[in-house]
Amino acid sequence: MATEPDPIELTRALLNQPAVLRHGFLDVLGESTSAPVPTFAQRAMNSPFVATVYERLWRPTSFYVASGVTTGAEQRRAAAALRLDGAHRLLDVACGPGNFTKPLAAQLSADGLAVGFDISEPMLVRAVADNSAPRTCYVRGDARALPFGDQTFDAVCCFGALYLMPEPFGVAREMLRVLRPGGRIAILTSYSGQTPPVRTALNLTARAIGLTMFDRHAFVDLFAAQGLVEIDQQTQRALQFVTAAKP
């Protein structure tokens, strides 16, 4: 009987940096990083407590309030937008505890591989414990310099994290770098297109806790400037969902 390919070894072969296996995930960072001093929101994402409650309570509740879209509906929309039925390799940037990585992996072709990528060790420990599967692997690294070669993945996504990052547009460009021609990208991030009083209140609150609010043009214009096609944007309350294809 043929044995199933080991997703850890398959992922290790995709990396362009050495990685150590720790707690069930591959780590290219080790003990130190060059990340700037974290904001309150970034510190929360590195908390073991938040990692424990994030998947079951924090994210489903907060994102439903922010968008009116349930987690299940988000996952179905993501799979459809990324056209995963024809994809072999998926990269889920800032995957957290893997609450999207595992269900999206199930939508890939039979020999597919989904790589969840995050900088938070507590989040990845939860991902390995709660959302491991035969076609998933998790990697710890810095999304500002993704440790993969050009054009490695058929689909790349980042759901609910770019507004936490110190260099979100640089991360988005990195995501496009590792996306192969014909592949698709999808992001879910903040949206500041409300009426002035609401927008002002959201921006003040976001700034206080270290979040970035993006307008309707930020990622649409970035994708267009990078030559992407089939750019689509959906907005709901305080979130926007943007997808595109790399020609």
Question: What's this model, at a glance?
Answer:
It contains 9 helices and 9 strands. The protein is α/β, with parallel strands linked by helices.
The biggest beta sheet is recorded as: 9 strands, mixed
Beta-strand segment tally = 9
Quickly count the helices.
Answer: 9
Classify the helix fraction into a percent range: 25-40%
Strand content: 15-25%
Order of helices and strands: HEEHHHEHEHEEHEHHEE
| Sequence of strands across the biggest β-sheet | 1-2-5-4-3-6-7-9-8
Instruction: Sum up the overall morphology in one term.
Output: globular
Counting helices, strands and paired strands, the structural category is alpha/beta
Q: Average pLDDT across residues?
A: 85
Q: Report the span from N to C terminus.
A: 40 Å
What secondary-structure arrangement, pairings included, does this model have?
Blueprint: H1 7-14, E1 20-22, E2 25-27, H2 40-45, H3 48-67, H4 71-82, E3 89-93, H5 101-105, E4 113-118, H6 121-130, E5 136-140, E6 153-159, H7 168-177, E7 179-190, H8 196-209, H9 218-225, E8 229-236, E9 239-245
Parallel strand pairs: 2-5, 3-4, 3-6, 4-5, 6-7
Antiparallel strand pairs: 1-2, 7-9, 8-9
Protein name: Methyltransferase domain-containing protein
GO molecular function: S-adenosylmethionine-dependent methyltransferase activity
Domain Methyltransferase type: 91-187
